[in-house]
Design brief:
The complex is a heterodimer of chains A (143) and B (137). With 143 residues, chain A is mainly alpha-helical. In chain A, 73% of the residues lie in helices and 0% in strands. Chain A has helices at residues 6-27, 33-39, 45-68, 81-97, 102-111, 115-138. The longest helix of chain A has 24 residues, at 45-68. Chain A is globular. The model of chain A has no long low-confidence stretch (mean pLDDT 95). In chain B, 66% of the residues lie in helices and 0% in strands. Chain B has 6 helices and no strands. Chain B has helices at 2-20, 26-33, 42-61, 83-99, 103-108, 115-135. The chains are: A mainly alpha (143), B mainly alpha (137). The interface between A and B is large, with 110 and 114 residues.
Chain lengths: 143, 137
């Protein structure tokens, strides 16, 4: 339980909720990042512009935070490349097959009381926890 | 035009939220998923914060006939739980547990000039395009 940071987690979460609410109220869009990322290269130009700007904002928000915060977000060093490449592929493939990720299902979908999103969120939470357990404590491949 | 400004502002807020909550620290995410080890429950509080705002505001917003700047809400009306939903989400969870990155934090981490996140984003797009190729058959 060391490094437990409930206050910044709650505040950061509230900002994410506020962002999703703004996008829904004004533009009628769900802030599902995997869908927005995917749509960047598969939509008519008009549809791609807002997605590109949202994603640019995402990067800009992180950059602004990193520039002004004292502690900042630590950059991980020397994490195995094979895990990033295979894991990244599975994140991309899985979020398209399952129609959403942590933001689209976990935040927007559950906020909309969608049974599909509640099912998806419980599934990826569980499989994420099992994966960490297997990789860290059973095989020791990633520790 | 206004829609685009809204998208930019919403993206900035989202990025600030991901950074402040430390969802962008992949080791912290892995510690959240590591329930049998040195468990860090902080990220459950990210969900509580986001859902606290979202559940309340989505109720009010979706009572409107349409959003402020568009003709209709673009919200999925699917209700059936099917195999792709469950299998896809399970695969996503495996990738999340292998890396500590879900799509939002991975993309936002490009703003930290993280090489690891850049490789992650490219790999995610490889997954997107593979799925598109397979499902177009």
């Amino acid at each position: 339980m060391e490094n437990f940071t409930p206050i910044t987690a709650l505040l950061g979460g509230a900002l994410i909720g506020l962002s999703a609410s703004l996008l829904l109220l004004l533009n009628g869009r769900m802030a599902g990042i995997s869908g927005i990322m995917n749509g960047l290269f598969s939509s008519p130009i008009k549809e791609e512009v807002w997605r590109g700007l949202f994603l640019f904002g995402l990067i800009l928000g992180a950059f602004i935070f990193q520039s002004f915060s004292e502690s900042g977000i630590p950059l991980r060093q020397n994490y195995p490349l094979w895990a990033i490449i295979i894991g990244g592929f599975l994140v991309g493939f899985g979020t398209r097959m399952g129609s959403g990720c942590t933001s689209g299902h976990g935040i927007c979908g559950i906020s909309n009381f969608s049974i599909r999103s509640i099912t998806a969120t419980m599934t990826f939470m569980a499989s994420g926890m099992i994966t960490v357990y297997l990789l860290k404590h059973v095989t020791g491949l990633l520790s | 035009m206004k829609n685009n400004l809204v998208a930019l502002a919403s993206g900035i807020l989202f990025g600030l939220g991901l950074a402040l909550s430390q969802m962008m620290n992949p080791n912290k995410v892995l510690n959240f998923l590591d329930i049998s080890g040195n468990w860090d429950p902080s990220l459950a509080f990210v969900m509580i914060g986001a859902l606290g705002v979202g559940i309340l505001s989505f109720r009010i917003i979706l009572k409107r006939p349409a959003p402020v700047l568009d003709d209709a809400f673009h919200v999925s009306k699917k209700i059936h739980i099917d195999k792709p939903l469950v299998i896809g989400s399970a695969l996503f969870g495996i990738g999340w547990g292998m890396t500590g990155y879900c799509p939002g934090p991975a993309f936002a981490s490009l703003g930290l000039f993280s090489m690891e996140a850049a490789i992650m984003v490219i790999s995610i797009y490889a997954g997107f395009f593979s799925h598109r190729l397979l499902s177009n058959k």
